[in-house]
């Protein structure tokens, strides 16, 4: 049976790992064994934080909506309940953007909500 030399494959794999770990601190970017460990950990963080990012942004949108709604004398929870009563289907991302970029149109939405709450 012929002898298999694996140097080319190993070198390519090491090169790939070191390229992906570029920018890591210390030997984590130059030493293969350490770089592989740091790279695996970084991929775990990336996987976890892709999910956490959604959570964080939802919290930010809620804070922005709450701040904007309080200027009109409502709380966030009453505002969301009023949106449902008024049958206005706008998600929090869009509401936060409107509140941040266009306070006049957000005020119109709040007026409609206040009318729905009063009724």
UniProtKB/TrEMBL annotation:
<dbReference type="GO" id="GO:0000027">
    <property type="term" value="P:ribosomal large subunit assembly"/>
</dbReference>
<comment type="function">
    <text>Binds directly to 23S ribosomal RNA and is necessary for the in vitro assembly process of the 50S ribosomal subunit. It is not involved in the protein synthesizing functions of that subunit.</text>
</comment>
<dbReference type="GO" id="GO:0005840">
    <property type="term" value="C:ribosome"/>
</dbReference>
<keyword id="KW-0687">Ribonucleoprotein</keyword>
<dbReference type="InterPro" id="IPR035566">
    <property type="entry name" value="Ribosomal_protein_bL20_C"/>
</dbReference>
<dbReference type="GO" id="GO:1990904">
    <property type="term" value="C:ribonucleoprotein complex"/>
</dbReference>
<keyword id="KW-0694">RNA-binding</keyword>
<keyword id="KW-0689">Ribosomal protein</keyword>
<keyword id="KW-0699">rRNA-binding</keyword>
<dbReference type="GO" id="GO:0003735">
    <property type="term" value="F:structural constituent of ribosome"/>
</dbReference>
<dbReference type="GO" id="GO:0006412">
    <property type="term" value="P:translation"/>
</dbReference>
<protein>
    <recommendedName>
        <fullName>Large ribosomal subunit protein bL20</fullName>
    </recommendedName>
</protein>
<dbReference type="InterPro" id="IPR005813">
    <property type="entry name" value="Ribosomal_bL20"/>
</dbReference>
<dbReference type="InterPro" id="IPR049946">
    <property type="entry name" value="RIBOSOMAL_L20_CS"/>
</dbReference>
<dbReference type="GO" id="GO:0019843">
    <property type="term" value="F:rRNA binding"/>
</dbReference>
<dbReference type="Pfam" id="PF00453">
    <property type="entry name" value="Ribosomal_L20"/>
</dbReference>
<comment type="similarity">
    <text>Belongs to the bacterial ribosomal protein bL20 family.</text>
</comment>
